[in-house]
Design brief:
The structure holds 2 protein chains of 2 kinds. The mean pLDDT of chain A is 88. The radius of gyration of chain A is 26 Å and the shape is elongated. Helix content of chain A is 37%, strand content 24%. In chain A, helix 1 packs antiparallel against helix 4, helix 5 packs antiparallel against helix 8 and helix 5 packs antiparallel against helix 10. By secondary structure, chain A is of the alpha/beta class. In chain A, the strands form 3 sheets. Chain A has an 8-stranded mixed β-sheet. Chain A is built from 12 helices and 15 strands. Chain B folds into 2 domains: 123 residues, D-Maltodextrin-Binding Protein, domain 2 (3-Layer(aba) Sandwich); 83 residues, Periplasmic binding protein-like II (D-Maltodextrin-Binding Protein, domain 2). Helices cover 33% and strands 31% of the residues of chain B. A 6-stranded mixed β-sheet of chain B has the order 2-3-1-4-11-5. In chain B, strands 8-7-9-6-10 form a 5-stranded mixed β-sheet. The model of chain B has no long low-confidence stretch (mean pLDDT 92). The chains are: A alpha/beta, B alpha/beta.
């Protein structure tokens, strides 16, 4: 039996497309239990989008959690072996307390993780799959990319007091140039240090412009190394048709305790929040005592539920008014619904639904 | 042309903000008409303005019902919406402050009772000082809390301080200066970047003019 695309909701349709995409690139499905030990999440609360977790005690007295995240579980179950790379995708429900809400929500999330001896090859492949994921949802999409290592190195090289560094980072995240100027004034920073920080606020029109601007300020060893990594990735994107959808934007960078290297976020026109986010999270791996490196992303499918709206013109195509012969009525409904036309059998026309046409059984057939 | 949806705070501040938009070349003449309409369009310029409750502007922008809006820094600090804060408009200036009855002395052997509408701002302020507090969340008439011994101090917006003085209170500490900010939805900032940047530049010009006056 073929799947009728009309019965798939937008998020379900996209989930199928994404699973097929990831499988085609050699990723295998990771299926996890609904429950995991609470301690896994409690130790890494800062990594979670919301730190509220539904917990309970199981029959063995262990404190368990209804999974609020998939990445931590995948990392926990991955291997550390030289030359080994694991490629996994998932399509799971997670349980979170959305910002500002007072009750938990079940959220559908699809994504992939690539863990092990990661090189630039894997990072670029994951970026390509993230871009293809966005492309499979809508033609109108924007992919923002940054490099956490580059941000970290330039902040280190600016050698700001700890509190001021935190404030600068918060200004970068909210594109708040007004407060940045105030910090410059308070610290009486030299022009060279200012330039190192101002570059993160620029609205770059092309990769070349961004690379040129960063080239001028990346004079330290660490920042030059990070810029070279970033350049390799931007050059890869330039060589694809995705370049026109990609923008350099450092305001997406948060949680530097966990992320390292490339970080990215994706938007679809018509959805007010980012629907894809990811990057390299080697720092999380270190925190969990792992040697392997990792890169991955998640697509938040629940954000797509309202995309495109409800385009059904009618609740049902045909209202079929059955006669006295039940077998004839059901056979007629089967025949009429053969090509995915929807048919509702009833004795009289219902008042609460809309329909395209009404047919009634007269004697031995439908008319 | 894609419309730009702009959420403005209802009231005196919103009117001042609209004046700045108009002076910067982003006008919508119908907004000046005397009526109770809340949405106004200038199809030619691709602008749609709407009036909303000041504390709701950030919600409209965060959820994408508005592409940009103008909200007070107090609202941004309290609710921490996931938006870009593009420009300080330098109007609606006041400060978030701690106030108490005249002659109040903090008795540090008990938690400080703090009445406020701005629980998060108050919590963060006292957490930095390592001072234990008991937050009493109120929605209005905060000034009477210390008078009726409901709280020791209040955390609230102070403009001239007149309401405080008339109620026998005085500001004892400034937490943060407040003013109106231009904010943008993060997705809209990318999809309508050119127009949003033009509006930001136009308003920045207005801010400079006011500072130079």
């Amino acid at each position: 039996m073929q799947i009728d695309p009309k019965v798939l909701k937008k998020d379900e349709e996209i989930a199928y497309k994404l699973r097929s995409l990831y499988r085609r690139f050699g990723y295998s499905q990771y299926t996890m239990s609904k429950f995991e030990e609470y301690s896994l999440y409690a130790k890494n609360k800062d990594f979670l989008i919301s730190d509220a977790i539904i917990s309970f005690t199981d029959t063995h007295g262990r404190l368990m959690a209804l999974k609020p995240d998939v990445t931590l579980s995948i990392v926990n179950n991955s291997q550390d072996a030289a030359g080994h790379v694991q490629k996994m995708y998932y399509d799971e429900n997670v349980y979170r307390l959305p910002k500002g809400a007072h009750s938990f929500k079940e959220i559908k999330q699809t994504g992939l993780e690539c863990i092990g001896d990661i090189t630039c090859l894997e990072v670029c492949e994951v970026i390509m799959l993230a871009l293809r994921s966005l492309e499979s949802i809508s033609d109108e999409y924007i992919f923002e990319i940054s490099h956490v290592g580059l941000l970290e190195a330039l902040l280190d090289e600016a050698a700001l007091p700890h509190k001021a560094e935190k404030r600068v980072l918060s200004c970068i995240i909210s594109k708040n140039t007004g407060e940045l100027e105030q910090i410059f004034e308070e610290l009486n920073l030299c022009e060279e240090k200012k330039a190192r920080l101002e570059v993160f606020f620029r609205n770059f029109q092309s990769f070349a412009e961004a690379l040129e601007a960063f080239g001028k300020v990346c004079t330290g060893e660490e920042s030059a190394k990070a810029l070279s990594e970033f350049e390799t990735v931007l050059n890869f994107i330039s060589s694809t048709s995705f370049a026109k959808h990609t923008k350099v934007n450092f305001s997406l960078t948060n949680n530097m305790n966990y992320y390292s290297g490339i970080a990215f976020r994706g938007y679809i026109s018509g959805v007010p929040t980012g629907i894809l986010s990811g990057g390299q999270y080697d720092n999380l791996m270190r925190k969990m005592g792992r040697k392997a490196r990792a890169v991955g992303f998640a697509v938040y499918l629940d954000a797509l539920k309202r995309l495109g709206g409800d385009d059904r013109e009618y609740d049902v195509d045909i209202i079929l008014l059955a006669g006295d012969d039940i077998a004839v009525a059901i056979r007629a409904a089967e025949t009429l619904s053969f090509d995915n036309t929807s048919v509702r059998i009833c004795s009289e026309i219902p008042q609460d639904i809309t329909y395209r046409q009404v047919l009634s059984i007269a004697g031995k057939g439908a008319k | 042309m894609k419309m730009i949806d702009i959420a403005l705070p209802k009231g005196r501040l919103g009117e001042k903000v609209y004046d700045m938009f108009e002076a910067a070349g982003f006008s919508c003449p119908s907004i000046r008409e005397e009526n109770r309409k809340l949405i106004f369009e200038n199809e030619e310029l691709g602008l749609r303005f709407f009036w909303v409750k000041p504390s709701d502007v950030a919600i409209y922008v965060e959820r994408g019902a508005a592409d940009i809006g103008v909200a007070g820094k107090d609202i941004l600090l309290e609710y921490q919406p996931d938006v870009y804060e593009l420009l300080d408009l330098n109007i609606g200036k006041c400060r978030m402050a701690v106030a108490a009855a005249k002659g109040f002395r903090d008795n540090s052997d008990a938690p400080l009772r703090v009445a406020t509408k701005f629980s998060r701002i108050a919590e963060e302020f006292y957490a930095k000082k390592c001072r234990e507090i008991d937050i009493i969340h109120l929605n209005g008439s905060i000034e009477i809390a210390p008078i009726l011994n409901l709280s020791d101090v209040i955390v609230d917006i102070v403009e001239t301080g007149k309401t405080l003085y008339e109620n026998n209170l005085e500001p004892i500490e400034t937490i943060v200066p407040i003013s109106a900010r231009l904010i943008s939805n993060k997705a809209s900032y990318q999809f309508k970047n050119e127009t949003i940047e033009k509006i930001k530049a136009g308003l920045a010009g207005q801010v400079r003019n006011t500072k130079n006056d």
